[in-house]
Amino acid sequence: MTRQVYFVPAAETQVASVKKKTAVTTSWVSVDAKGQGTVLDVDKYAIMRRVQIHARDLRVLDPMLSYPSTVLGREKVIVLNLEHIKAIITAEEVLLRDPFDDNVIPIVAELKRRLPQEKNLTCQGLGEEEEEHIGLRNDVNTGEENEFPFEFRALEVALEAICSFLDARTRELETDTYPALDELTSKISSRNLDHVRKLKSAMTRLTNRVQKVRDELEQLLDDDDDMADLYLSRKLAGACSPVSVSGAPNWYPSSPTIGSKISRTSRASALTAEEDNDVEELEMLLEAYFMQIDNTLNKLTTVGSLVLTIILL
C-alpha cells in the first residue's frame, strides 16, 4: 500500500500561525445611551464587525503600538486614543478598552452616569412629528432644539477625564518639586541635586504627554472638516431622511396632509444641508478642554523653567 504524504508550504504555515496569534480576545465595555454597561471579551474581528471599523483605525487603540494621542472621525465612529482612554464612540454606544484598569474604571462609571437622557432620537421608534425634526438643531416651524448629541456627551466625558488626569499629575509633580528646589537652594549637595534632576526628567516626560493631547485638540480646532466628521448623529439623521440629496421627495404624496409634511421636511433637510459645515457646537466643547490642557502645559513649562534655572546656577 502506498502512503501519500502532503507537505504544507512554510509560508502557509506562517500565515496560519499569524492568524492564530491575532485572534486574541480583549476586554471591552459597551455603555449605551441608557447608561447600561456590558463587558465584552472579544477579538478584534468582532469589534470591527460590531462598529464597522477598518483594521488600520482599530490599530490606533493597540497599547503595544504606542500611537500618539488621536481623535479620528470616521463615517460611523469616533476613534479616541488619549493616554489610557482607548475608545470607539458611535451614535448609540461607547466601547472602552480595558475596563478593569484602575484609571479606566472611573471613566466607565462617569459614562454610565452622564450618558442617559430623557429623550433619545434614533431612526426607529419615532413618532411622525419627531421624524420631521431629527438631525436639526433648531426646527424652523416650532423653534424646538435637539439635545446634545450622544457622541458629544461621550466625547466630553473622555476629554474631561484626560484633562483632569493630566492636571492632577501636574499638581502632584509641583507639590514634590517646590520643596525639592527649596532644599537645593538652601543646601547644595549631590543628593539634593540628584533629586531635582529626577523630578526634571519626570516633568519632561509629563510635558511631552500633555503636549501631545494639546496638539491633537489644536489640530482638530484648526480643521472644520475634521470637526464635521465627528457629527455622527447628523450623518445618521441624513441617512434616516426620506428626502433625496436634491431635496425632492423619493415618493409621491398621496394626500394634502402628507404633501404638506414633505414640504416641511424638504425645507428642514435644506436647512440641515446648510448646517453640515456648522461646527460651532463642537468647537465650543473642544475649546473649553483645549484651554484646560493648555493651562496645564503652561504650569509645567513654568515649573520646568524654574528648575532648569536653579540647576544651572
Automatic annotation (TrEMBL):
<dbReference type="GO" id="GO:0015095">
    <property type="term" value="F:magnesium ion transmembrane transporter activity"/>
</dbReference>
<keyword id="KW-0460">Magnesium</keyword>
<dbReference type="Pfam" id="PF22099">
    <property type="entry name" value="MRS2-like"/>
</dbReference>
<comment type="similarity">
    <text>Belongs to the CorA metal ion transporter (MIT) (TC 1.A.35.5) family.</text>
</comment>
<feature type="coiled-coil region">
    <location>
        <begin position="196"/>
        <end position="223"/>
    </location>
</feature>
<dbReference type="GO" id="GO:0016020">
    <property type="term" value="C:membrane"/>
</dbReference>
<comment type="function">
    <text>Magnesium transporter that may mediate the influx of magnesium.</text>
</comment>
<protein>
    <recommendedName>
        <fullName>Magnesium transporter</fullName>
    </recommendedName>
</protein>
<keyword id="KW-0813">Transport</keyword>
<keyword id="KW-0406">Ion transport</keyword>
<keyword id="KW-0175">Coiled coil</keyword>
<dbReference type="InterPro" id="IPR039204">
    <property type="entry name" value="MRS2-like"/>
</dbReference>
